[in-house]
Design brief:
single chain; 81 residues; mainly alpha
């Protein structure tokens, strides 16, 4: 964990237990599409999203891919293929 993240936790007196790495958060985001996460995992993801610039971008990319797959599926069904 970087110096600034530790400092954020100290300054805002955030508990250290819900912190997750970017790799863990991406796994949770992908798992969240298939099943509901427990409340403590949802809190950990939400806290991480507040302090990370890359993970919210990943969530946007996942949403975009989901929409693109839906459009592709309806396009291929409409083609009669």
């Amino acid at each position: 964990m970087s110096y600034w993240v530790r400092k954020l936790y100290r300054v805002y007196r955030m508990p250290m237990w819900p912190r997750r790495t970017c790799r863990q958060v991406t796994e949770l985001v992908l798992r969240q599409e298939d099943q509901a996460l427990p409340w403590h995992e949802r809190v950990a993801v939400r806290l991480h999203m507040q302090i990370c610039a890359a993970c919210p971008r990943f969530v946007q990319q996942v949403k975009f891919m989901r929409q693109a797959m839906g459009r592709w599926r309806s396009y291929s069904e409409g083609d009669g293929a």
